[in-house]
Amino acid sequence: METPLLSVKDLRIQFNSREGVNEAVKGINFDIEAGKTLAVVGESGSGKSVSAMALTRLLPKPPICEINGQVHYDGQDVMAMSSADLRHIRGKEIAYIFQEPSVSLNPVFTIGSQIAEAIKLHMPHIKDVNAHIIDALDKVGIRDAEKRIKDYPHQLSGGMQQRVMIAMALVCEPRILVADEPTTALDVTIQAQIMDLLREVRERTGMAILLITHNFGIVNHFADDVAVMFRGEIVERGPVDQVLSKPEHPYTQALLDCIPRLGEKRERLTTIDHDKLAV
User: How many domains does the chain have?
Assistant: First the structure.
């Protein structure tokens, strides 16, 4: 069996405040091999995004947030890394597409300068930085990229901002891409183009992808494995075909039952009864 590129063991995350302790993630385990995609699904608040941010220690430091467990990237202990080593890993080895591009992009710098910063930091051998940026924007479907590199984030639509974030994440050719709802602000046609691009990069470079999404259509057609999160725990995990066709946990079944289907008339979508699904 191939050695995982990323291995997470007993990851636990808790947030401390004056109101008390919130145990957001309760001991999850998963592995991702090079060239594979693991999709993580579950309703909002189940712990998907904070788990992803913990992989490179992007969450607040103690005492606000406490992270326990093991995260190994390519055999290296991420939890024991120095700040300098983490700066090398973030963006270059493990890149992120965050859910809210309007928050992630700096409003006072052009999009070209923000992408250039990543290139200069992680790929100093690139001589023609502008050409590299234009090529990255072209690949994510941004027209007139030569002009757009001079634009500020507020001059772009939400969908365009999301495509800039995707270009920024892919420009340094990371070994692992953490994609948190990467197509949420895009129309169906652009969604398909972006997922095709990610598939092409994955096949060409062997990049592993951790995909956080609510879109079961994307999970079915793009991911190799799926992990279902509920109240900070992974309640079901396995190959996509197996989990989606024969879900074993009632929460997984409840999520699948919530998907609207053509030809089915419902007064309302299925309601998930959390009390009955307690794990």
Answer: 1
Mean pLDDT of 167-172: 92
Which backbone phi and psi does 91 adopt, to 5 degrees?
90, -40
Q: Report the b/e string of 139-166 with b at 16+ CB within 10 A.
A: bbbbeebeebbebebeebeebbbbbbbb
Q: Residue 224 corresponds to which tokens in the numbers above?
A: 């190799």
Q: Report yes or no on 147 lying in a domain.
A: yes
- Would you call 81 helix, strand, or coil by DSSP? coil
- What digits encode the pLDDT tens for the residues 234-276? 999 999 999 999 999 999 998 898 877 777 776 665 677 776 6
Q: What is the pTM of this model?
A: 0.91
Strands (E), 112-200: 176-180
User: Would you say residue 144 lies in a domain?
Assistant: yes
Q: Would you say residue 161 lies in a domain?
A: yes
pLDDT at 158: 83
For 266, the token pair is 């419902």
The strand pairing partners of 239, in sequence order, are 225
Comparing 35 with 264, which gets the higher pLDDT? 35
Place of tokens 């270059």: 92
How far is CA 111 from each of CA 106, 170, 173, 206, 239, rounded to the nearest angstrom?
8, 14, 18, 27, 38
Phi, psi of 102 (to 5 degrees): -65, -25
Per the CB < 8 A criterion, the answer to whether 39 and 219 are in contact is yes
